[in-house]
Amino acid sequence: RKELRIALAGNPNSGKTTLFNALTGAHHKVGNYPGVTVEKREGTRTRGDRQYHFIDLPGIYSLTAYSIDEVVARDFILDEQPDIILDVLDSTNLERNLYLCLQFQELGIPVIGALNMSDEAESKGIRIDEKHLSTMLGIPLVKTIGPKGTGTEALLDCIDEVSAGKHKSDRAVNYGEEIETKLENLEKLISADAGFVAKYPVRWLSVKLLEKDSNAYQRLKEHPNAGEIEAAAQESVEWIEKHFGKDAEIIVSEQRYGYIRGAIQESVQTVKEVDFSVT
Ligand code: GDP
Ligand code: K
Ligand code: MG
Q1: Which residues contact 181 (CB under 8 A, 6 or more apart)?
Q2: Angle 240-241-246 (CA atoms, 0-180°, nearest 5)?
Q3: Can you list the positions of beta strands (E) in 91-246?
Q4: Please, which residues have CB less than 5 A from ligand 3, an ion?
Q5: What is the pLDDT of residues 148-172, one digit of tens each?
Q6: CA of 185 to the centre of ligand 3 (A)
Q7: Does the ipTM exceed 0.90?
């Protein structure tokens, strides 16, 4: 029996736990993440010759570890390396939710997006062309309504397809020529050590170094050439900030939002509802 480990992740209140319950039914246990009081929910679902092991991660807005929830979610993904990240997205708030989604994509772990709250989106007149959005983001999307369990079978189908290698997440944010040149250099330096590459996603770490993420610098210490790479990263940050006249992490986040807005503009329409009710 093939077992797949799928982490449910996403913003707080996007419907992760509701969807987790719909996917696993009564077959779950609740514990704690090691060393902290953050609740850990794990459950399984069996279908055909497959066993799906789901982990309900705490809600987060970013993979930059500021809060305990972010540390827990981020450490789990980096250290436990689930087979798939199931990103539960609030369809009524896509711009903010996709900001995290783009960061998941940089981790090199296959991502599936659940367009959850699709009932609320519908009633607010938010029309999502999921095929087009999926193409633009480079990840498969499935519409879901957590409390009704709508879309859970389609999600399992999608998980099967992803694990069979059918959807290659090939798209990633392009941060612009200057930053991409710096990233390329960092990626090359980091890739020189096979052991480190096996442990950490190179693209993600390179971006995080430019974002001056202290946890990323901490993890970089495990690299045999940590000193050289850290110096190169700091030099890149200084160059970028001088060139653009802004904080490097702000430029990175602006590029992400630009990318998201472009995708949303092309695939999401908000129509004003006409009230036909007779008064
Ligand atoms: P979490 O913080 O991501 O775990 O979110 P929860 O699963 O706790 O859900 C937050 C709230 O949204 C709860 O009141 C859920 O009942 C509700 N909810 C979750 N999914 C949906 C959905 O697809 N449609 C609607 N209308 N409500 C939902
Ligand atoms: K709600
Ligand atoms: Mg929850």
Answers
A1: none
A2: 125
A3: 111-116, 126-128, 141-143
A4: 16-17
A5: 999 999 999 999 999 999 887 666 7
A6: 39
A7: yes
